[in-house]
Design brief:
Elements (H helix, E strand, L loop, with lengths): L2 H6 L1 H4 L5 H9 L2 E5 L3 H13 L3 E5 L24 H12 L4 E5 L5 H9 L3 E4 L4 H14 L3 E7 L2 E7 L9 H4 L10 H4 L3 H20 L8 E6 L4 E6 L14
Parallel strand pairs: 1-2, 1-4, 2-3, 4-5
Antiparallel strand pairs: 5-6, 6-7, 7-8
Helix pairs in contact: 4-5, 4-10, 6-7
Length: 249
């Protein structure tokens, strides 16, 4: 790291669990964030200020006024702009040293798989289970850790899928059925701090993976209730007949 980076990230380097080597790993890391909405906005900004060297941000949608209630990577003067491009602009405003790639459209499966293979960690910040299942499948295929979260109303959930860890479940193990009738934030509402908290927690887990610190959440499902401020952790098992990661395939 250069002297300016040592100064910028000095509070990280002071942490004995992280130290110089951990921060250097963050500076040299490559992270893909799928979705720059409520979850993605918070995750992206904390990954950026923490020094993730290369950020790829994928989102085909455009900023709307109703997004600004919770999507902190966007501003009033960027309403109508693609969300990935808007998030890139915000990232570079707080940390111009980063290499930021904005992908303003969907990639086909082969192109997305190739992109995932070039990353250290992937964050799924999309808003539907169909996309989460696709990203889970591709990350398992590529052998890359995935931090997946969801939030609606006052509730949030998050899990870490790490194909490198033996006998740990993937998203498909826990959610085998796509609920075509699942509710969206536009239909059910979302309390802004809840989605922000879940996105920040995604960034936390991604940085832990990159820095090689702390306890992995692979094999656990985290649930948050914003009305009571309660976190709950559930142990979840790999399904041996899972079509994505099962041992019987």
């Amino acid at each position: 790291m250069q002297d300016q980076q040592l100064d910028r990230y000095s509070r990280h380097i002071l942490l004995p669990q992280l130290d110089y080597d951990g921060q250097e790993a963050i500076v040299n890391s490559r992270v893909l964030v799928l979705g720059a909405g409520g979850l993605g906005s918070s995750a992206i900004m904390y990954l950026a200020v923490s020094g993730v060297g290369h950020l790829s941000i994928l989102d085909p949608d455009h900023v709307e006024l109703s997004n600004l209630q919770r999507q902190i990577a966007h501003t009033e003067n960027r309403v109508g702009l693609n969300k990935a491009l808007s998030a890139k602009e915000q990232v570079l405003a707080v940390n111009s040293t980063l290499d930021v790639e904005a992908i303003d459209g969907l990639l086909d499966e082969n192109a997305l798989l190739e992109k995932i293979q070039s990353m250290d960690v992937v964050l799924d910040c999309t808003d539907n289970s169909k996309s989460r299942k696709l990203h889970n499948r591709l990350c398992v295929q590529a052998g890359k850790p995935l931090v997946s979260a969801a939030a609606i109303r006052f509730e949030g959930q998050m899990m870490v899928i790490d194909p490198k860890q033996m006998n740990k479940p993937c998203y498909e193990c826990v959610y085998p059925d796509v609920n075509e009738g699942e509710m969206t934030c536009s239909e059910s509402g979302i309390f802004a701090p809840v989605v922000g908290l879940m996105g920040i927690h995604q960034a936390l887990e991604a940085l832990k993976i990159i820095g090689g610190i702390g306890e992995s959440l692979a094999g656990k499902l985290m649930s948050f209730d914003g009305l009571t401020g309660t976190w709950r952790h559930f142990n979840v098992a790999q399904q041996k007949n899972c079509p994505i990661c099962g041992q019987e395939n």
